[in-house]
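Format notes (please read before filing issues)

Several people have asked whether sequences and structure tokens are stored in separate files. They are not. Every record keeps both together, in the order shown below: the sequence lines, then the token lines. Line labels are part of the format and must not be stripped during preprocessing.
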Amino acid sequence: MGFNPNGLEPQVIDFEEEWNEFRKSLDKAFLQKWPKDDYTAQYSRVYKICTASPEPKSEELYANISNYFDEKSQEKAMMLNQYEAQQLLEEYTEKWTRYQKATGDINNVCRYLNKNHVNTLNLTNVEAHLIDNRGHEYALSVVNLAFEKWRLKVIDKMSDKLVDACLTLIKEMRSGELIQDVQRGQVHTVVKSFMDVCQHKQRNRMELYQNKFERRLLRATSEFYDMEGKRILQQGDVGNYIARVLDIIKTEDRRAYSLFDRSTIQKQKERLVKSLIYDALDFLLEAGETMVKKWTENADQLNQLYRLFHDMEDPLSRLVKMFKQYVEEIGIKKIKKIKNPKEFVEATCNHYDQYKKFVDRVFVSEPEMELRTPYDAIDNIDMMQPDKQFLESLKDAMRTIATGFT
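Then the structure lines:
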């Protein structure tokens, strides 16, 4: 029969009476006023109900708890439905946090019910599935049952309003408006609740988060930065544009890391790259060609352009090609009138050294994450090395230059 708290033996009980007393304690849990001595008493009550004689009342208790969570989540939904925007975020955060705490405490008191009813029922269902190969449903632990009720009664009915409020606040962040830390915390709590209520699922745990929040976030990201990219581009200052885009990507990565699920970070970055880099690629490459030809004046901007293209295969390869062609063009001009082999060697060595220093200085990317300790610097040392593509292109250019000496 398992653990027997306080040595209790099976007893004949009045289930309705026991439930009414237990419900009073559940109400205390939701009021955050559940004294420790009653907490222990209700643990024993759950055991008494689950081992009642002549028939255990586990199933009835589980059904009543399910109905109780139905009532509570419906009650919260009705209260929340009267709020909008920022006030909705505040109220949702407060009510969801209290709901989590209360249902977590109730789950602890119902450990015996979880172990000897829910787990046994699931095992029986699995065994039946193995015998007749039919699908089976898992019974939920008390806390996951509570979360499922919240999903059905609150999130499914209010997700549009909740996501609207979150996206409004995120847009304000992106627009540079002053947002309090507590407001960021509210967005995080709302977004995370879309995942928390699905953690019990055997599969598709992220479906609610992705369908209700992530899709709309990514669409809003594209819409905002399509407009923002055009606005910055109209200013005509390529250096400012590149610097702003690098800053936006860095800021959005940090924001996504703190507010959203990790799986969203790369998806959002792809939207940013499309809106801010690919849509402005002709402008950036034209500017890049000018920077390469006047590299002594534009080394810093060229480094920023390289960092912008660092993870983009086609734009980076085109920048490499520009660099190689320029090195070849200048090198061939230098050796065109040289007839002495010794002068040729000196000229080509000087030419290589000059552009090798340039590569070492300019075509170096920064680590994406902040270096918080000396160990981080060691781990990221490879990221601080000159780009291999540019080093190889420099060597290829020197070979081409060498063939021009006769």
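For reference, the curators noted about this record: Residues 163 and 213 are 6 Å apart (CA to CA). The first helix runs from residue 15 to 30.
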